[in-house]
Amino acid sequence: VLEKPATPKDTMDKIFHLIEQRFKGQSGIIYCFNRKEAEEVSSSLESRGIKSCCYHALMSAPYRNSASTVTFWRHS
């Protein structure tokens, strides 16, 4: 558990550097406070070249249970 920086940019910079320095090539889960933040984190990681998938309760059941989502989580 890490303290969250004050700005969204600083937060994403910290997450990105942590992944690159300590967890490169590994799978992991980033817990967010809400759906919007989860989608923004996933999008930001993708834009920085880190494969990411957003998953939250408001997604449709077919998407949450789809083979592509399950495959992503099993092979990431």
Automatic annotation (TrEMBL):
One GO MF term: helicase activity
UniProtKB keywords: ATP-binding, Helicase, Hydrolase, Nucleotide-binding
SUPFAM superfamilies: P-loop containing nucleoside triphosphate hydrolases
Entry-linked InterPro entries: P-loop_NTPase
Keyword tRNA-binding: no
Protein's UniProt keywords contain Hydrolase: yes
Protein name: ATP-dependent DNA helicase Q1
Organism from which the protein derives: Biomphalaria pfeifferi
